[in-house]
C-alpha cells in the first residue's frame, strides 16, 4: 500500500520567536509591498523605506523603542532569527512583530545579492532644515550633487561618529533612502538628523544666518590648508557647515561661490587625490576635534 505524501514535509520550519504563518509566496501583499520600495517613486509616495541587515534593523528597532522611528513591518528568515535572537527580542520589546519569510523570497524584497535575511519597513526619518540648522549647531555636513550611494551613506556614518548636528542631502544628491545608501550608513541613518530635498543656496544662507562658517571641501585656489588653517586665518574651532561636492568633478564654481571659503587636504604621497568619503571623513573629524578643543 502506497502512503500519501505529507503536504507539510517540505514546509518551512516555524521559528518560535517569529510571527507566522511563514510567508512563502511572491504574491503575498507584504512581500510585494516591501519589494516595491526599491523604487524611489514608491518610497516617496508611501514615505517608507527598507532597512536591511542586522545593524540597520537593530538600530531601527532601538529607535522604535524610543518612539523616534516608525517600523511598519519586519521580516526575518529562520536562520537570521537563530543568528540574531537579540534583534528579535528588541523587536518584541518595542512591540514590533517580526514575520517569518522563506529565504527564497528575500530576493523579491531586497536588491542585495547575498542578503542577511532580516529586513524592516520604516517610515521616513528626515526633518526640516530649520529644526537642525540652529544657533546651537556646531557641525553640519552638506552633500551637494553627490550621486554615489555608497559615498553618501558612508559620509553620514562618519558624521554620526563625529557627533555632527545634522547631514543635509540637497535636491541634487542621491536619495538617502536608496537601499544602497541605507546599507552604507550601517544604522547611522537612525542616529543623526537628516534633511533632504533642499537647495544648496537655501542651506548655506540659513547656515550663515545661524552663525556657522560655510566651508567648501575643494582644491581650487584660493584655499586654506586643512592641516595649517591658522596660516591663512581659518578658525576651525568655530561652528562650521562643510559642503562636499560630486565624486568626479567636485563643486561647480557657482556652488563654491555660496561658501565663505575653500579648504584643501594636503597630499604628502604620490596619490593624485582622495575619494569623497575619505576626504569628507578627514574634514569632518578635523572640525570635530577642533570644536572640542575650544
From TrEMBL:
> What Pfam families would the database entry show?
MRM3-like_sub_bind (PF22435), SpoU_methylase (PF00588)
According to the record, the residues making up region (Disordered) are 1-20
- Coiled coil feature spans: none
> Per UniProt, which keywords does this protein have?
Methyltransferase, Transferase
Q: Name one GO biological process term.
A: methylation
For this chain, one GO molecular function annotation is: methyltransferase activity
Describe the location of the RNA 2-O ribose methyltransferase substrate binding domain by residue ranges. Answer: 50-128
* Family listed: Belongs to the class IV-like SAM-binding methyltransferase superfamily. RNA methyltransferase TrmH family.
The identity of this protein, by name, is: RNA methyltransferase
Q: What is the lineage of its organism?
A: Bacteria, Bacillati, Actinomycetota, Actinomycetes, Micrococcales
